Amino acid sequence: MVNFETPAPPPDIFVSGYLQEHYGYAVQRSRGSGNWLITYTIAGQGLYRLHKERILAEPGDLVILKTGASHDYSVPRDGTWEFLWAHFLPLADWTNWLHLPELCPGLCKISLHATATRDRVQQAFLQLNADLNSFFVSHNPPTSPSDSLAILQRKLALNRLEEILLLAIMENRFEERRSYDPRIQQVLERITDDLREWHTVEALAQMVALSPSRLAHLFKQEVGSPLIQTILELRLKQAARLLAFTNHNIEQIATEVGFRSPFYFSRQFSNHYGLSPTAYRYFHTTHP
Question: What region holds the HTH araC/xylS-type domain (predicted)?
Answer without folding.
Answer: 185-283
